[in-house]
Structure formats: C-alpha cells, structure tokens
C-alpha cells in the first residue's frame, strides 16, 4: 500500500495524500467547488450537499467534502447534472430562508448570498417553507435568528469541537429540525460563554453579535458627552480586512484617523491597560509565589490569567471550584473603563458622568463582560459599550471615508501610550510573554534571556504550549525564587483549556502560571473579528501582531511613561488599595447547564 | 383456483431443528460458511438488498481488536411487523444467525437494536438470550455475548449508521458513507448490521445449503421472503413466500377483486398500477431496481375507492416528519413536495408544476445523504406518473 493516491479531476491528474477528500484534491488544482457546511476548522459534516460532484461509475452524485479520494477515481466537478443539482439545492435553501439581504447584517459577507448570486437563483421556483421564529436577543453578546439559519451545524460543531461548551445543539426532526439550546432556553440562560466562535463560523446572518453602535452614534451627536474609544491590540491587525486591505495588514494609525473622523473625542489604546494588567498580574503572581515559598501558605497555584471574558465564564460554569486559581485582575478592557471614569476624568477635568467609554474589541464576550454587575467600580458603568472589529468597520464605512488612502494619526493621550508587550496580548502566548518580560526583570534586574526580547517558545498555534524558565541571580527582595524553575503553560480555544484545567482538577498541574484565551489563536481569532476565519488567516494576524511589537519603541510594560505616571500620580503601587478597588474583581460560581 | 404463489415454511418452523443446524454449522470453518453464504446469493432483507455474504466478508477482512454484530430490529415502516413476529416466534434462528456472523467475522459481541415500541418483548427476549448464551458456552465453547438496546422510536434510527449513532448516545443522524459500518461502525469498530429476517435466513441457508436455497426464487432474488400484506385485502397478515413472484399472481391471491394499485416496499417503495401487474416481478430485478428500499416486505393493496392523492399526501407527511432533517435535499425537498402537491390540488400552482416537483425528486435521489431522502422519489414519481389526473383534479 502506498501513502498517496492518484485521481483525475476535470481531466487533470492529481496526486494526493491518503485520506484526502475530493474537495482537497480540487483545492490543490485550484478548482473551486462551492461548500456551505464545510469549514476547515471543523470536522466534516456533509449535510448541505452543495459540494456534490460526479464520480464516473457512480449513479448518485457524491459530496466532495466527505468523500475520500480513492486511487483511480475519475471526478467531474461541473457537468450539467452537477450544476442542475447544485442550483436546485441552493434554491431549496433559499426557499427555507428569510431572505432580507437589503437589511441583513451579514449582507456582502454571506456564503448563502454569494452562492445564490453565483447561481442566479430564481426565488419563485419553490414555495416558501420558512418557519415562523423570533430573534433571540436575550444575550448581551449573541443574537440568534433562526429564520436565517441554513442548518449547516457549523455553530454546533464549533461550540463542541473548538470550545467544548456544547451550548448549541440540533433539536427536533424533519421539517422542524433546528439549532437550539438545552431545553430551548434563551441564549442568556444557558452555558454559552459568549465567545462568538459560532458567529465567525456561521456562513449566514443567523448568528451575529448584538450590535450597539447606533447608540454610540447618538452619543457622539450629543455635545454634552465626551465619547472616548479604546481599541484592543487585535483590532488593528484585522480591521483592514473589512475595509479592503489584505489579511495581516497593520492599520493602526489609519484606524485612529478614521475613529476621529467618526467623531470620537479621544481615541485611546487598550494596550495601555494591557500594560497596567501586566504590572498588576505580574505582581499578583510574585505575591502568590512568595506566600507559597516564604510564608508556606496554601495558595492556589497555578495562577491563571483572567483577561478573556469567554474563558472566565467558562471556568465559572465548568470548574466553579477552581475560581481561586484565576488572577483577580480585571481584563484590560475593564481596567481601562474603570480608569477612564476616575483617573482620566480627574486629569482631564471632565465629569465622569459625561464620559461615554467605548471599547473596540475583537470579541463578543466583551459585551457581556461590560455588563457584569461587578463592573461599576468607578461609580458608573465602567464601560458603556463594547463594539466588535466588525461593528467598527461598519461605522467607518458609514462615514464614507476612503480608508485605503487615509492619513495616519497617533493615539491620543492620556492612556494612549503603550508598549509592544501590550500589543502582543492579541496573540496566544502574548500575555505570558509580556508578563515574563516584566516579571523576570523585576525579579532578577535583568532582561529576559531571549534574543530581542522575543520569547519564541510561547508563540505559535499549538493548542497547549509549555515552557520552563530558570530564575537565577535574583535581586535580594526576590531571593526566595533563586534557582526556581518557573513552569508555565498557554492554552487557547476552550477545548485546550479543558486539557490544562483537567490537570488542575486532578491536582497534577505542574505549572505556576497559565495563560488561557477562549478563542483559537487568542484575541486575533476572536468572535468579534472579521469573517471568515481559518488557520492561515489567524497566522497572518499573529505575524502582524509580532511585527507591530517589534516596531514599538518600548517593548516592556513597566517602561511605558504614561503607565509609570499612572502609578506615580494615582494608583501608587501595583496591588495597592486603589488598584484593588478599581482593577481587581471577583468571580461567580455558575451551573453546568 | 390453485394458488400460483409458493408458500414456504422455514422461518416459523421448529426451533429444535435449528439447534442441530447451529451445531452442525459450527463444525465448519469460517471460510466454508462464508462460501456457502455467498453462493446462496442471500440478500439483506432490511431493504437495501446488499449481499449478506459480501458484507460479512468485508467485516471479516478488517483487522481490529473488537468487532460487533448488530441485529436491526427497529422496524419503523408503518404497517410492517414481520420482524416483531420473528423475534416473538423464531428468536432462536435470529440468535443463531448472529452467532454464526460472530464466528465468521470474528466478533464476540452482539446487540439487538429493538424498536422502542417493542419493549414488551424484552423479558422473553432476555430469557431466550440467556438460554442461548448457555448453549453457546456449554455445547460450542463459543464466547459471544448478546445484549438488547432499546431504540428511541424514530424511523430514521433504522438506517444503519443512524442506528449506530443512536447506540453511541448521539442524535440519530445518518453518517457519511464511506466509511461503511463494516469498516467503521459502532464505537469506530468494524460492525455488521443485519435485519432480523436476514439473520434468520442465514440459518436457512445453513440448514438447506446454498444450492437448495437458490432453488427458491429467481435470478438474484433467492430464497424466501416474509411479506407484510395490508390495505384492501381480505387476507392481511404475514406470509412467507418464495421470492421473485409475479405481481399479477400476488394480486390474484391477495386482492379483493378491485385492486387498482399495489405499493411495494412501503412509503419508500414503488406504486405499481393495475396495467403493470402482469409485467412486474417482486425481487431485485429490472423493474424494481431494489436500490435502497428500506424495510422490504411491505405490500399494500389499494382498491378503486382509494384516492392516490391521499396516499401520496400521507407518505409525504410521513417523510417530512421522519427525515432526520440534517441534509438539504431531504429536509426541504420533502416539504416542497408536500406543499407543492397541495398547491396544485388547490389550483394555486398549475399542473406544470408537477414537472418541477418530479425534477426535484431527481435532485433528492442524486444528492441525499441516506436512503430516506434518496427513495422519496420512488413513491412520488410512481404515483404521480401513473395517477396524474388524481393529483390535479
Ligand atoms: C430510513 C431508513 C430506515 C431503515 N429502517 C430499517 C429498519 O427498520 N430495519 C432494517 O432492518 N433496516 C432498515 N433500514 C436499512 C438499514 O440501513 C440496513 O441497510 C439494514 O439494516 C441492513 O441489513 P440487511 O443487509 O440485513 O438488509 C433502513 C434504511 C433507511 C434508509
Ligand atoms: S443571511 Fe445572507 S442570504 Fe440571508 S438575508 Fe442575510 S445576507 Fe441575505
Ligand atoms: S458564543 Fe461560544 S459558547 Fe456561546 S454558543 Fe457560540 S460558540 Fe458556543
Ligand atoms: S446558525 Fe449559522 S452555523 Fe449554525 S446551523 Fe445555522 S447557518 Fe449554520
Ligand atoms: S436523507 Fe433525510 S434522513 Fe437521510 S440524512 Fe438526509 S435528512 Fe437525514
Ligand atoms: S460542503 Fe460538502 S456537504 Fe456541505
């Protein structure tokens, strides 16, 4: 038996790895076969059937996504028989669909719309079999509209295979079959962690983020309001995709210009808060280590990061007895919000009640996070609205500016300065790397021993990454760490979070510090990012993040001037009283269903 | 008048004889048994009509630490209850067939996937299985364990891969094929799924031997077949008849003198109108391409008082509800067919629309994932083409 097979597609012979599908073979030849239920990130479903092709010697058509290429197969991808069947299938999907492209949020970014247009579907052929349904807007983050669902089950597979949450499942049979939740409960009543992975894997407008940007337009129009926006690191490496730039283009400064044109009074940087997070979280880690090594107390280790609100809700549901492992630090978004309505307001002399604080995020869970009841430590809603990268893209389009040729502008100050360490928060491993750049230096007085500060072992798309860093020649205050091998791990995508958490649950976790991000690839692969997503796209955004970092004049959080100023003038010290009040939080045990 | 149909009395014959057959068969080698089975041309009685010997051969050739034999007793086709009767009256033959399958393919675990509604049979099945286990152990020294799995009560779970999914605790949705169950079945292991009747007939082949088995029936349709006869007939019930009978003979014996059509193979089968009785033979052969006819054996007779529109309407309603709903052509196609014939009947769509619907059944046949969606075309086109006026007026 050989490891390769040879098949013929549309007259061209192609050699393939064993177990490859006919669809893979076609891709290799640059032959496009339409697909709907297929997604590279997910296992094969084979239920939409639009990818059917003709196999010589077989009467029925075969689905190319789920049919393995076998030696000697002869395939035709575009015969009249194939075309007719495909067109019929798309027409059927349309007949079950609430076609509203003029008002649909996914219009021009919808796989069904594209296919229906390509095949010029006649909407009159079939009778409508659309079922009455109500849009579920119960969740702060996710909007579910069954009338636009094509039942491809990509969301179900996403929630199960990538996230292991299983909030969505198939319910009922036959004509009533639909995507539902446990006992048909509303989205805000189930285990859904709001990560939005289902949204970015959905081919249509059936799953979208709850959108709040109309409110922001209103606030901007109100002269009494001081409307500020801070943008997360991953937004700047992905926003361009919605506005005509190739994947992986850094558009940081154009983005700032565009946001100013929209009318934000100040365009600030979440990275600033990310740098603050590093100082708080880094010291929290050192504090925990000290209590373990010196005071011999029983303190929960490993400590686990808490910047990803999807991950936080996940642990609250799935491992509610291990919440003490979570860092008490709020996420950068929430730190930013709390500081905006206290420190920023004071320094700028603006009444915090007039500040509208907006967060531009790669994430849908951030919308939920902003509305958690504990996120009011400034005395107001610390964050008034979380917008996704996609929503920002829409706002920019509405202004009519030509984004491609826009001039470049720097972030505003205060809270607009940041380091490369803050930028890499956007990629899996980034928080860990940023923390190590600071913690190592605090403990030893020297820079981390990696070339150009690039801690490469924590980078990349492997599901769970681990590393060990030996601490030597400590400064006196941290002599208790002398010779300690700091063990760290990084997981992204909640299925991988499970792996490291199961160790914690069993008591076998060897680590001191773990970074967990809910989304595959970290925030660059977040549920609020431009659609589509796949491994290649995530990698390009990651590359852009590290490029951005490499080009920053300051690469370490503790060296950012505005951050130093914040501590000098306001917070006094990491983990101090003000920090505790504004920048740290607590968690809630939740049910598993 | 002398009946032209040949009655067979194997399946419900004495179980004492069956025990001797089993002991005799176990003295043969796996290869000998397999040869016998392939030579007999026994075909699965669950509907798809796949060669039982070949299926076992595929499973036998797989290398795996564990293999399974599953007896498909889901029997979801409305109006069919032959499998229930076999389990009730001829359990030993079914268990014998399973054990022989176990020996041939190298499996030591078997399941009976029992339709939920047949729960009342469980106590007596358990007793029979327990006695059978003793026999295997004491007289054959063969390690083979049979368990009952109670189905969830949906028609689609009779489809072998949906059945396996359901046994694994998942939603009963058919899988992509390939891989076939013989390669990747229950828990990912090579699995033989056979209909209740098929397994009982394995015992018949072993008893009378392939050459004699083949003397019954014609061409590729060998042996006997159980028919569930219902509808407008004075003699409804279950009959074991020689395979390959002519439909005209059948109607002569079972009709009420006014038979206008016979639905062969249930909702997913074909409707044969009176003018074609003469030329139609029941079996896997030209007229009936036998391709994916789920749960074979249902024969429903309709007399001239019946509206074929209503018949079709009922079938389509059945499919619209019983499709698992995962794949586009079947989920939506069934709804369109049902809605379409209603619209034509009401006059909302012109009769030309029937052509569109017939084309739709082509698409469904060509692209559906499993036998359910693929076979809706059978009843639809055979009824619409033969009783067009009844659809319109
Ligand atoms: C929708 C559908 C329902 C089916 N239901 C049954 C059933 O109830 N019993 C059965 O034996 N086979 C049923 N089958 C056929 C099985 O998939 C499978 O082919 C059969 O169990 C194999 O056994 P055989 O080779 O002995 O016929 C069904 C197939 C389809 C597509
Ligand atoms: S989901 Fe797609 S096809 Fe449906 S209305 Fe929206 S854009 Fe149009
Ligand atoms: S948002 Fe995340 S957790 Fe919620 S349903 Fe979607 S994939 Fe599942
Ligand atoms: S919600 Fe979207 S991803 Fe889920 S089944 Fe419907 S169309 Fe597919
Ligand atoms: S053909 Fe019908 S029953 Fe079969 S998989 Fe498709 S939807 Fe389910
Ligand atoms: S893409 Fe192949 S069946 Fe959906």
What is the string of helix and strand elements of chain B? HHHEHHEHEHEHHEEEEHEEEHHHHH
Fill in the CATH topology of the largest domain in chain B.
Rossmann fold
* Overall average pLDDT of chain B: 94
Question: Uncertain runs of chain A with pLDDT below 50, 5 residues or more?
Answer: none
Strand order of the largest sheet of chain A: 2-1-5-3-4
When the domains of chain A are counted, the total is 4
CATH class membership of the largest domain in chain A: Alpha Beta
Number of strands of chain B: 11
Task: Please identify which CATH superfamily of the largest domain in chain A we are dealing with.
Answer: Fe-only Hydrogenase (Larger Subunit), Chain L, domain 3
Gap from first CA to last CA of chain B: 39 Å
Key features?
heterodimer; A: 593 residues; alpha/beta; Ubiquitin-like (UB roll); Alpha-Beta Plaits; 4 domains; 4-stranded parallel sheet; globular; B: 393 residues; Rossmann fold; de novo design (two linked rop proteins); 5-stranded mixed sheet; 46% helix; binds flavin mononucleotide; binds iron/sulfur cluster
Quick take:
The complex is a heterodimer of chains A (593) and B (393). With 593 residues, chain A is of the alpha/beta class. Chain A is 35% helix and 13% strand.
